[in-house]
Amino acid sequence: MVIWIILLVMTAAAVMAVLWPLSRHYAVAGQVDPNTQFYREQIAEIERDRARGALLPSEAEAAKAEAGRRLLRANGLQDAAVAAVGEPALRRRRAASALALSVVPVLAIAIYGAYGSPHLLSTPSVPVSQETAKLDFGTAVAQIEAHLAQNPQDGRGWEVLAPVYMRMGRVEDAVKAYESALRYLGPEANRLSNYGEAMVLAKDGLVSVEAQAAFERAVALDRTAVKARFYLARAAEQDGQIEKAKAEYTELLSASPADAPWVAVVREQLSRLGAPQPGSAESGGPQIGSEDIARMVSGLATRLETQGGSAEEWARLMRSYAVLGQRDKAAATAKQARQALAKDEAGLKTIETMARELKLIDSAP
Amino acid sequence: MTRKKRRLTLIGVAGGVLALALGLVLYAMNDTIVFFNSPADIQAKNVQPGTRFRLGGLVKQGSVQRTESQQVSFEVMDGQSSILVRYKGLLPDLFREGQGIVAEGVLENPDVFRADTVLAKHDENYMPREVADALRRQGHWQGEGKASQQAQ
Amino acid sequence: MLVEAGHFALALALGLSLIQFVVPLWGARANDPVLMRVAPATALAVLACVGFAFVALTAAYVTSDFSVLNVVENSHSTKPLIYKISGVWGNHEGSMLLWVLILALFGAVVAVSKNTVPARLQANTLAVQAAITFAFLLFILTASNPFTRVMPAPGEGQDLNPLLQDPGLAIHPPLLYVGYVGFSISFAFACAALIDGRIDAVWARIVRPWTLTAWAFLTLGIAMGSYWAYYELGWGGWWFWDPVENASLMPWLAGTALVHSTVVMEKRDALKVWTILLAILTFSLSLLGTFLVRSGVLTSVHSFAVDPARGSFILGILIVFIGGSFALFAWRAPLLRQGGLFAPVSREGALVLNNLFLATACATVFIGTLYPLALEVLTGEKISVGAPFFNFTFLPLIIPLLLLLPFGQTLAWKRGNFLGTAQRLYAASGLAILVTLAVLAFTAGGPVAAPLGVGLGVFLILGSLNEIASRSWSKGSPWAVVWRKAAGLPRSTWGTALAHAGVGVTVIGIAATAWGVESLGTMKVGDRLKAGSYEIRLERLLPRVEANYREDVAILMVSRNGQELGNLETMKRLYLTRGMPTTEAGIMTVGLGQVYASLGEIQPDGSIGMRLYYKPLVLLIWLGALVMAAGGAISLTDRRLRIGTPVRAKTLSAASVAAE
């Protein structure tokens, strides 16, 4: 609310900047005209120069004569100017005021409305007090990185670094780091689960074949690996095997103690799956992702349908639907993409790769 | 001196200077301008050895060889053909195998290009424009699609 | 919240600049002083709005507010504070905002100088200025908005291009922009004069400080950019005739001509139409420079983002303003009153010649820069016009100009005596020839061009000093009198002399590059590499880690003729966030020359590639530019109002009367 008042005050101030000179009455008559003033000063300057001996008297005379002529000319021009009071002037002033009162706020609000983010106004801006902490953090990361650059076989180091990367949002790096950790420290259920999770995040939530393999290995090593089992259930869900997913979630829930931190999440998944068949358009989507994601996906879909787009964009739309659990839509998108990109050899390849990855192959025409 | 005479002098001098400049420009245009070719262009246009031009393309994977005293050789390729480039000097920071580069130099014989300058991109998003165009024509480069994906 | 308020302020500025464009123009036409007075008030309000927007964006950078897309794309929380601030203009959107901020700042200064600028001229000028501001604000808001938000905000930014993380680049754009945008004021004044159909010495007097300021800043900006390219790109070159460099050189050449022609106009009331045309041309070239650099037509470190929509928007602005101003010129210029007369051999004549050479040189650069683009658009053929072209066309036009410079500077106003002038330069030219011969003998066997260039530079410096000396020294007068006379000379005279001497200094620096030596080698620890009389030994190679990059450092011991001078470090850096490598050259200044070492690739066996240069007197190139800018600054402080008198001409009063 405060911010709206601030914006209002700003607008008022801006309009006032225009109205202020318009409201004041004409009082410039006394002001010296800079034109004639210039030549007067010039003549005075010549006098001073002569007094100092910088100019010979004859030179000074010539210069003064020239400046004097220019002064006369400037005076002559001056007569035509000034004096504008009375009815027409008043009308002009009113028109200018009306212009300022309308143009400034209307233009500003129109432009700001179109390009600004007023919905973000009410949320407080991001707190950034941990500035120095972040700096040290960055240095620490860089130090570990430098150390690992020289001793790449230090699996422990990679294992420490990987979750840090995850937190920094450097997911791809995290995948690589887990990979190295696995290589040097050997497979272990927890490590494999984390590796898989990093891969899932790198693909925007899609459980890829590789990730699934990692989770399966983790479960093979340790039946109770919660994270791995959770993602395997999700993989089943994304493959369209809803019943299997439900069964796995339920099993996971029954095997965990009632106060385990993941119980709530699993319950949520279950209740979602319990809702009407997630294949239909309206039911599945909005509940899963936040509304924003759903809106973005539908925006992308509309754009691609109406204006077309690159193969990468089509592929991303397919993946988004798959992640949202709308497999029939993903399949339909694949079909549309194949038509739209019929002449684009490389584009088709991208689509097919994505379809294979999403296991949409059987839904192909 | 009258206004007219003054004007004539001015026009005369200006004409002289402009004529000089025009002559220099025309002469320099014949002599100093360097064309851009991709490896395929060298055969297609039948570029003669001894010609100076800019060569653009991708550095072929695994073709970079370094010898004594900073002598480097590598192959530059486009979709259709490739050519051996020899260069003595430090390569730019962003010179990597598989990256687009532009080399300026002289065609030594139909198979060897001797470069005296090698330019790589200025940052990781930048593909030398000539190279990008040449490759796009041949349908090889999809860098832009990738970039746009990253951007979103 | 601050970010959104800043965004809104920018939108307000758009509306205000529209008012600032329409109302004063109307007022000037209707002769209504009240409407005209709207101009200065709105100009100040626009500055307040744009300034606030800029502060808001800077605050977002400093606090690493990653909900702003622009900050995400160009900043990083571990970046040093100075690069967080310079990151504001280290990208397309922010740099355009800086552009408009400087534009608004200059408009505000015109607005507050109400006692020196006639109200009509001020109103028209600010209106034209507002049109430019409006166009660029519209461009910023619709096509390159720095205030676009991302929600949810990412945890970390993508960092600034490492090449731009450099103190030189932190100040290069502001300097250059003050130069570019400063010419917009000259442009606005020129258009105002055309609209009003009136131009005289008062106009020139008002415009001169603007042109000089812009010129001095542009000089500094170009020099800064050149020095940056020299030490950051690691090739040891300082000018590449790169289109982006040419884009800044063209307005500089036109601006230099403009500085000189305004002098003629102020003192002699002549060259009016030409001066107006030059003012329009100079700013048009500035706009063209902005277009070339920002549109992605040219790819370089400057073209931050290649977006065709932006390119066509700037092209549109370019066409409207250049086309509009030339149309205005064609329509109104014939109505302007002709100026005073002068003989071909006179200071005015010399300045006309100066303008002629500068404008022609500018035209050759223009052709060389735009011909490849035009050819590609028309035929699809790709060519590159490089240094050989420019050396061949530009130098033959600039060298005669420089040779004639001391003569022109010595000539009297209105009518000069060439023989007399030549006589006054006997000492300077004699000394210059002597120096040339001495250097030639000393460096026998070396390049011939270098001693000739040094001779030219010496001639320029001595010619400038000669001007001061001859105006303050006369035979037999005691030193105290000479000193007092010299100190009493107008500061513009000192400024002129200094700026011209600066040109001489730069010329010497450029000429001396011919003596530079270079060598290339592969080194292991303990190996030596020699260039000229300088030698380096590789002492150590070690890795190092900093906040946002890690680097491999080569520590070198520099020695000259066996005598050790100290250590030098050259690095290969890897900026972590972008995974981008850069080379940092190691530079040791010895006198006015520099030893320059650049690290190549590090091989698996621990050997490194190394390029070593010794560049004698190379610092003079940029010192000269500093001296030129200082000359401009001193000239700026001269507030005197003078008229050009035919000093020392014997028969003057009659001639001057006849001339009018």
From TrEMBL, chain A:
Protein name: C-type cytochrome biogenesis protein CcmI
Gene3D superfamilies: Tetratricopeptide repeat domain
GO aspect biological process, one term: cytochrome complex assembly
Pfam families, per database record: TPR_CcmH_CycH (PF23914)
Bilayer-crossing regions: 6-22, 95-115
Any single GO CC term annotated in Swiss-Prot or TrEMBL for this entry: plasma membrane
Cellular compartment(s): Cell envelope
Taxonomic path: Bacteria, Pseudomonadati, Pseudomonadota, Alphaproteobacteria, Hyphomicrobiales
Main location group: other
Organism: Microvirga alba
This protein's encoding gene: ccmI
Every Cytochrome c-type biogenesis protein H TPR domain range: 146-261
Listed InterPro entries: C-type_cytochrome_biogenesis, Cyt_c_biogenesis_CcmI, TPR-like_helical_dom_sf, TPR_CcmH_CycH, TPR_rpt
Key words of the record: Cytochrome c-type biogenesis, Membrane, Repeat, TPR repeat, Transmembrane, Transmembrane helix
Protein origin, superkingdom: Bacteria
Automatic annotation (TrEMBL), chain B:
Subcellular location: Cell inner membrane; Cell membrane
GO molecular function, one term: metal ion binding
Source superkingdom: Bacteria
GO biological process: cytochrome complex assembly; protein-heme linkage
Keyword Iron carried by entry: yes
Residue numbers binding heme: H122, Y126
Reported function: Heme chaperone required for the biogenesis of c-type cytochromes. Transiently binds heme delivered by CcmC and transfers the heme to apo-cytochromes in a process facilitated by CcmF and CcmH.
Protein name per UniProt: Cytochrome c-type biogenesis protein CcmE
UniProtKB/TrEMBL annotation, chain C:
Entry-linked InterPro entries: CcmF_C (IPR032523), Cyt_c_assembly (IPR002541), Cyt_c_biogenesis (IPR003567), Cyt_c_biogenesis_CcmF (IPR003568)
One of the record's GO cellular component terms: plasma membrane
Keyword entries, A-Z: Cell inner membrane, Cell membrane, Cytochrome c-type biogenesis, Lyase, Membrane, Transmembrane, Transmembrane helix
Claim: Ubl conjugation is one of the keywords in the record: no
UniProt keyword Transmembrane, yes or no: yes
Pfam families: CcmF_C, Cytochrom_C_asm
Transmembrane segments: 6-26, 38-62, 96-113, 125-144, 175-195, 207-229, 249-266, 273-293, 313-331, 352-374, 394-413, 425-442, 448-465, 494-517, 617-636
Main location: membrane
Membrane topology classification: Multi-pass membrane protein
Domain Cytochrome c assembly protein: 89-295
Gene Ontology biological process: cytochrome complex assembly
Domain of life: Bacteria
Localization annotation: Cell inner membrane
Coiled coil, from the record: none
Boundaries of every Cytochrome c-type biogenesis protein CcmF C-terminal domain copy: 315-639
Molecular function (Gene Ontology), one example: lyase activity
Family from the record: Belongs to the CcmF/CycK/Ccl1/NrfE/CcsA family.
Protein function: Required for the biogenesis of c-type cytochromes. Possible subunit of a heme lyase.
Name of the protein described by the UniProt record: Heme lyase CcmF/NrfE family subunit
